[in-house]
Amino acid sequence: MRVLIVGCGYVGLPLGKELVRLGHDVFGLRRSVLAADEMRTAGIQPLLADVTQPDSLAKLPRDFDWVVNCTASGGGGAEDYRKIYLEGNRNLVAWLAGAPLKKFVYTSSTSVYGQNDGSIVTENSPAEPEAATSKVLIETEQLLLAATKNNFPAIVLRVAGIYGPARGHSFKQFLRGEARIEGDGARWLNMIHRDDLIGVISAALAGGKPGEIYNVVDNQPVNQRSFFAWLAAELQAPMPATIASESEGWRRRGITNKRISNAKLVAELNYQFKFPDFRAGYAEEIVKIKTRS
Ligand SMILES: NC(=O)c1ccc[n+]([C@@H]2O[C@H](COP(=O)([O-])OP(=O)(O)OC[C@H]3O[C@@H](n4cnc5c(N)ncnc54)[C@H](OP(=O)(O)O)[C@@H]3O)[C@@H](O)[C@H]2O)c1
Question: How far apart are CA 194 and CA 175, in angstroms?
């Protein structure tokens, strides 16, 4: 297949490398010319454009079978989200209209689920987030799913917290000594290793159904206390300090507490996890840290 990866960063670059390994003809799009050599080394053909600038897209070839949009805002607020996710996807849909596209995969986020009661969340659960940034992601998903009515083959992946080499929010906080246990530490964390996200994107390109939403998360949500207790035991480090639970303020601040189900992903894409839980996924990083110290 001729594949375009829009946003060739932490996920997009190794995804491209993997798709090259599988025999596909892979192009990677980003704004920075500095990354072109890195892409070429991975076997990816670099294209320079900015998804927020339709004129820059208009200059590019558009005869792709598969397109993956994994651009990221790099943090920021709702306005940044609006530009990169909502307008970026809108521009991509307009640019690709009428092209011979077979699949378009967008990496949304499980932050679209606003649940804060620890409940199990499937793709059929309400996605009614409080956070302004997550509301933009919902608008973005709706834009793409509406486009499927005009034969635009969009698939939405709702991705949990990504971890892997040099990444992982709570893990890095723990290593820096900045992690805190909120109240009784019962709040659930939902994660996915980068290699599995790459595997799921490949599976969605090959077998995902346009118009569908799939949660992308490993087999085992873990509560904050258990996660830190495991790290503390593995690294023979102290448990983080406990702070008062602000659960009353969670909803207002957009903090969620939920267990995301991957049942649809497993059943419909037949996906087998390389790292079914955080213990398997962090094992390599733990060994690296232990051998350094
Ligand atoms: N981090 C998480 O835990 C998490 C959770 C759920 C979902 N996600 C989603 O997962 C996806 C992959 O994230 P990641 O960690 O791989 O992000 P990343 O490392 O920040 O990479 C983002 C890529 O997008 C490119 N980019 C940014 N703005 C662009 C623009 N306007 N036009 C063209 N390219 C642009 C960047 O390159 P240039 O700067 O050179 O343009 C970079 O190559 C993102 O869609 C993110 O929203 C992440």
Answer: 19
